Amino acid sequence: MILPVRGEHRMNIETLEYAQVFESKYAQAYLLNDPAHREDHFREVLHNCLSLHRRVHGEDSSISQQKMYVAAAYLHDLFAWSRVNHHILSHEYVVSGDCELLAIFTPEERHLVAKACLEHRASFKGKFSSRFSEAFNAADLGPPNLLHGLKRAYKYARSTAPGRTPEEAVQVAVDHLIDKYGRNGYARRSDVYVTMYSAEIEEYFNSLEGLQAQSYTPEFLEGI
Ligand SMILES: [Fe+2]
User: Fold this and answer.
1) What is the 61 CA–ligand 1 centroid distance (Å)?
2) Whether residue 136 sits in one domain with residue 84
3) What integer best gives the mean pLDDT of the chain?
4) Predicted TM-score of the model (pTM)
């Protein structure tokens, strides 16, 4: 059976069930992460992978490709509680960890998933080892969406320092977005990402700069 997902791509029922097994197997481990790096994020990255694949290739991915996207989506931030090296830990886990869910892959497919975990970060500077890795990096970044990014950064800012007031947390979130995703930010936008979202990126920069200039009224804070 094929399931439509938000009208942009279709996810096979087998893929969906495979994703659900990851969610239950790693539920406790995900709780160690901050709220911005848990199941909601992984579902969203998976959705982005499938949408990007459809847009790049003009057709839905095969079941085996979808399962590779699932494994990368649910494992790339498995160790996100260790912010500095979680990509390395995740790569190591996919290469040599005791995870029966990865036994379905050929050694080449497992290698691709591991490399995608290693190269997923916005700060990744090297050359992508495969198109799969590049697509996954773009999927993790997600389409330019300022409100969504602000909500996620705000959630992170509040969870990591609960003593912050909402005003302080939103300021931290906006500064983070500017530093990472702004016009001169350090986030990597791969070729595939720029090609996919060329029209939206400039608009994103302008909106982000507008956000930096505005004051954060109670009405504004209610919206995030
Ligand atoms: Fe991620």
Assistant:
1) 21
2) yes
3) 92
4) 0.87
Other Cβ atoms less than 10 A from the Cβ of 158: the count is 20
Output the CA 47–ligand 1 centroid distance in Å. 12
The three-class DSSP label of residue 187 is coil
Residue from 117, 109, 132 nearest 53 by CA? 132
CB under 8 Å to 183, separation ≥6 — which residues?
Answer: 205, 209
Residues, beta carbon < 5 Å, ion ligand 1? 77, 140
Range(s) of the domain holding residue 156: 146-223
Decide which of 141, 170, 204 is a domain's last residue: 141
- Closest Cα partner for 74 from 94, 95, 53, 52? 94
21 plus 92 within the same structural domain: yes
Residue-wise pLDDT for 164-185, tens only, equals: 999 999 999 999 999 999 999 9
Interval between CA 62 and ligand 1 midpoint (Å): 23
Calculate how far, in angstroms, residue 155's C-alpha sits from the geometric centre of ligand 1. 15
Q: Which residues of the chain have pLDDT under 70?
A: 1-8
Assess whether 103 and 16 both reside in one domain. Answer: yes
